[in-house]
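S.,

Sequence below, as promised.
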Amino acid sequence: MAVAVAPARNPAGAVMGNGGPPPAPPFDQSTRLSLVKLAAITRPVGGGISPGLQLPTNGLLGGLLLKITGTIGGTVGAVNPLGFSSIVKRVTLTLNSGTVVFSMSGPGYHYIYRDWLDAGYVDCLGQSNGRTAITATGAVLDMYIPMQVNLRDPIGLLLLQNRQTTLTLGIEWEADVTVTATGTFTSFQAVPYLLNYSVPPNPASLPPLRYIHQVLEDSRSQAAAGTITYDIPRGNTYMRIGHGCGIAVAGADSFTVAQLRVNQSNYIWNSDIGSQDMMFRILHGRARPPGVILYDFLGTSGLGSYGTTRDLYDSNRTTDFQSVVDPTGALTFYTVREQLVDLKAA
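The prediction came back faster than expected:
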């Protein structure tokens, strides 16, 4: 009679004779997401720079929530045309005191970037009045800063649980008189919340950590109507590029043509106001904010930030990469670039 014999096991418990130990479980079965509240960052009297906050060296950072609130009282006058969003001059996340992972002004975030966030491109910050005219009332300027490209895919996670990694949050607040000539600012603060994943017990379960999800914004003054040729930095893989050309509370489309040009002659995106309107409705299901220009390489797969990588643009393959926009008059021209940086290629 045949007798069943249990397979031999090595001291680690793995079955011997079948090719070694079993594979490590995937990341999504080896971790959990937690929400961690940090100390509030208060706005200095009169505006200015708050002391930088170094984030805890714990877990894998998936994103950061900023609950930004305060109140303007008294009689307001000569208000900033960008509305409540102008109160936040700049928010930055800096890695190891050198690499800027996230850098955006309040207007750049609320008028341009917040429409790109996560799954279905819904406005997940509808509670904010960043796009509203300044009055004597409370301000809600909340921000969601994603490290991973979306809440499903772990590309872009930052390993904070590492002695070689420091990530610092910085907030600069606009001066009172730049926001409104009169009025009082009270109780303005930003409360950070970390979206942290636990580190899997088996290192083999970690997702790829070679990519940084980087979001950067800059602006320039345009003195008159003409053509702006914006040289897009090469070397990274672009997910989206957006411009603000006439953004404000009473915004207007202060442009006629917006083109994305490769190697001086290949126009991979040739748009005007009408086509920008239609593409925004196709991707977002609502009207485009006035003055916003968007080249979306991720959402064109039809699933928002959860789409495929089909249209992502690897700028390493080009010798020349430019956005060409024709403004209709003097304005501030904003640019937001969302990209993946390959650390191994750097």
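DSSP finds three helices and 21 strands in the chain.

Coffee later?
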